[in-house]
Amino acid sequence: MLISSLIQMMPILLAIAGGYLYAHFFTANSKDLANITTDLFVPAMIFHSISQSSLSIKAVGEVLASSSLIFILLIAAGWLWVRLIKENPRSALPALAFMNSGFLGIPLMRLWGGNEAMNIIVIFDQVQGFFMFSIGILIITGGFNKKSFISLFYSPIIWAMILGFGVNFSTITLPEPIINSLFFIGEAASPLACAALGASIKETRFTFKNSLLGSLLFRFVGGYLIALFTVSLLGITGLTRTVILVAASLPTAMFTSILPLRYGQDNQYASMMVIISTLLGIITIPLAFALAG
């Protein structure tokens, strides 16, 4: 299982390495790459995936409930941890609570389990994304901010999710050329996301702190155990269970490093979490699949 999972990850690792090498030899702004990916290609992929998904309302409800509960538990436990290690919660807490279920998780699940597994993690990721771009921004900015609420309204990802569910649960049938066009555009989202992640690794300076070791354990082990508690509590089984367990223990989300910069906060701790956890993902992701069964 470990070797099989590693082989499944190979295209992702190569795309990340490609982004890193490109940024090393040429000028590449990871923030710009992330913006165009999340504002154009990812919304197309999300809308197509959700609108054409065959997941039942029950399955969607399970993913929504589990993803929300996992976030609540991670934020609560993460707050206690950052107070214990005396780190700034504006930088450290989002890096503990938010996993890379989008840029890394979506292509990973598509390679591992096909469209069905990808559809599950897309919904999981959108819940996490909603919390990241709302509560996450509030944590980073240190309080309620009008701009954070405005950004939710103008987020293409949020609207893609809402409209996708609207089409899926209605009698609307999209014209075939529209479906094909969205599929074509969305196909570029995963490799572009991986390249953006690679470029971001190249742009970040390494500043290691001893507390990072415990924080990395929190991200991987804590995320998995909280997810295990959640799926057991909600009685979730099968493919959905595996996807949720692996998703919750993925490396730190790249945006936890980018968002502090956007709001004038220090991002060094989050950046180190992103870099080290992504590299360790070569080992931890196959292990998560093996443990999830």
Folded structure, characterized:
This protein is an all-alpha fold and 293 residues long. The chain has one domain (2-292): Na+/H+ antiporter like fold. Helix content is 81%, strand content 0%. The protein has 13 helices and no strands. The protein has helices at 2-25, 30-51, 57-85, 89-97, 105-141, 146-153, 156-168, 176-186, 189-203, 211-234, 238-248, 255-262, 268-292. Helix 3 runs antiparallel to helix 10 (211-234) and helix 10 crosses helix 13. The radius of gyration is 18 Å and the shape is globular. The model has no long low-confidence stretch (mean pLDDT 85).
Helix content: over 70%
Mean pLDDT: 85
Indicate the multimeric state. single chain
Q: Per DSSP, what share of the residues sits in E-state strands of 2 or more residues?
A: under 5%
Q: What's the end-to-end separation, in Å?
A: 9 Å
